[in-house]
Amino acid sequence: QVQLVESGGGLVQAGGSLRLSCAASGRTCSDYSMGWFRQAPGKDREFVATISWGGSTIDYADSVKGRFTISRDNAKTTVHLQMNSLQPEDTAVYYCAAPGILYRYGGRSRSGYDYWGRGTQVTVSS
Questions:
Q1: Chain centroid offset of residue 111 CA
Q2: Residue 94: strand pairing partners
Q3: How far from chain centre, in Å, is Cα 100?
């Protein structure tokens, strides 16, 4: 079992930045790929970014490419999402997630992930 806890959300003005963190515990978390998803009110949960267990494969949603950066610190079993140039449309609850199988790449689909955190709210004011 893997437990995931997000932090770093908050209220920021358009154009500002936030850094989200996802702390993982349980098993050997450095052997799991990790993903970030977000869900805005009234919308489906959507893919934001993902990183493979070794960090060599990274993918972003087109809507955040060039503005968001995913990274991981395997020594601390933490994954970060640096979010720059935030816009009101980035307002959502942000979730981190991990697959249920070691070394498996989660990809862009929610079905690729079995463990989910409870989320952290990001609100961007215009």
A1: 15
A2: 38, 120
A3: 16
Q: What integer is the mean pLDDT of 75-99?
A: 94
Query: Cβ distance 39 to 45 under 8 Å?
Result: yes
CA distance 60 to 53: 16
Nearest to 88 by CA among 60, 63, 116: 63
> Measured between alpha carbons, how far is 37 from 115 in angstroms, rounded to an integer?
12
The predicted pLDDT at position 27 comes to: 65
| Residue 29, pLDDT above cutoff 70 | no
Residue pair 64/48 in contact by the 8 Å Cβ criterion: yes
Mean pLDDT (whole number) for 44-64: 95
Q: How many angstroms separate the CA atoms of 74 and 53, rounded?
A: 8
If one counts every other C-beta atom within 10 angstroms of the C-beta of residue 43, the result is 9
39 and 93 Cβ atoms separated by less than 8 Å: yes
Q: What does 29-45 look like in DSSP terms, one character per residue?
A: GGGS-EEEEEE-TTS--
Please check whether residue 4 is in contact with residue 116, taking contact to mean a CB–CB distance below 8 angstroms.
yes
